[in-house]
Design brief:
37% helix, globular, two-stranded antiparallel ribbon, Rossmann fold
């Protein structure tokens, strides 16, 4: 029965949606005086005018691609279970865009949450946009600021959306990483998360109005995954808009498997990767001084650099960085 449900072709061009109302954009431009010609809002209104009203969301990605990526992150099985259930629905007839709920990855620092989101974006989405909450101290950074203020204008998300549409991407379905949302300022006047109350609900995201732009945009095609270490620091009303999934620290065995996959991916992604053998031997993996997935890429790249310095093509024990001593006992490979 399952084979019959999914044994059909997906739309080749994707799914159409209306991004904006051209008449509304023209009215907004006509209402601006001569002093507004170079303001951020005017610039982005003019950019929006050059974008087709109707854009495309891509056909849903293959379920097999998600299953393959799951092998790289065995410690995050719960995340893949949530995404797979929504991806399966997109493959049913009549097929629909992949529309996962906003997901909040909750777990201690260093469990590879950010790297996991990057890999999900590469596998399932058309782009990756990152908004670091801990580096944003203005309440209008995400959702814009009214132009009556000197620094007024559209926020980060509207700029990203219009810029991506202007570039002319074939089909749009980016994944936004909202990194460390538990680190948002506690002061209501400087909290950048206010716009999320509208953006994370599909019905309001379809007609989102940025405070510094004042033109309705359909932003339903944007997906969100947030990360946090401490859920108690997040507004309960905002928590309710996320599907919260815990990401535990990987076991030493899981971290060893992840090290091998990260190593291969690093070689595939880099132009110089073909100079090396895509293999990490057991003795090298066991000797890696790795506490968490966060350390993996940096350490492995240092190993590759050391191998290159000795004109080698294979990472050996002698290429491992000197162990750091001024820290608690590691939880890596024993």
């Amino acid at each position: 029965m399952q084979e019959d449900l999914f044994d059909h072709s997906l739309p080749a061009n994707g799914f159409e949606f209306d991004f904006y109302d051209p008449d509304e954009v023209e009215r907004a431009l006509a209402g601006r005086n001569k002093f507004d010609k170079s303001s951020p809002a005017t610039v982005y209104l003019q950019r929006l005018r050059s974008v087709p009203q109707t854009l495309l969301r891509p056909a849903p990605p293959a379920i097999a691609a998600l299953n393959e990526l799951e092998r790289e992150f065995e410690h995050a099985k719960a995340v893949f279970d949530v995404l797979r259930r929504h991806l399966v629905l997109a493959h049913l007839l009549p097929s629909a865009p992949f529309a996962p709920p906003p997901v909040l990855l909750l777990g201690p620092p260093g469990t590879g949450k950010t790297y996991l989101v990057r890999r999900l974006a590469e596998t399932l989405f058309s782009g990756f946009w990152e908004f670091s909450i801990s580096h944003s101290t203005a309440s209008f950074a995400l959702g814009g600021l009214d132009e009556q203020y000197s620094t007024g204008g559209p926020g980060w998300l509207v700029k990203q959306a219009i810029d991506s549409a202007v570039v002319g991407t074939t089909a749009l379905q980016p994944l936004v990483l909202l990194d460390e949302i538990d680190k948002a300022p506690g002061d209501r006047n400087s909290d950048p998360l206010g716009a999320l109350f509208s953006l994370l609900e599909s019905h309001s995201a379809r007609s989102f109005v940025d405070d510094g732009f004042r033109v309705r945009l359909n932003l339903e095609w944007i997906s969100y995954i947030a990360t946090a270490n401490d859920v108690s620091q997040i507004n309960p009303a905002l928590q309710s808009r996320f599907r919260i999934v815990e990401v535990p620290a990987p076991s030493p065995e899981q971290l060893a498997k992840l090290a091998r996959r990260v190593f291969v991916n690093e070689l595939l992604e880099q132009p110089w990767g073909s100079n090396f053998e895509p293999v990490l031997t057991d003795d090298v993996v066991q000797a890696l001084d790795i506490e968490s997935p966060r350390d993996l890429r940096q350490t492995l790249r240092e190993c590759l650099g050391a191998a290159a310095l000795r004109h080698g093509t294979k990472v050996q024990l002698c290429d491992l960085p000197r162990r750091r001593t001024s820290r608690p006992q590691r939880i890596g490979f024993l």
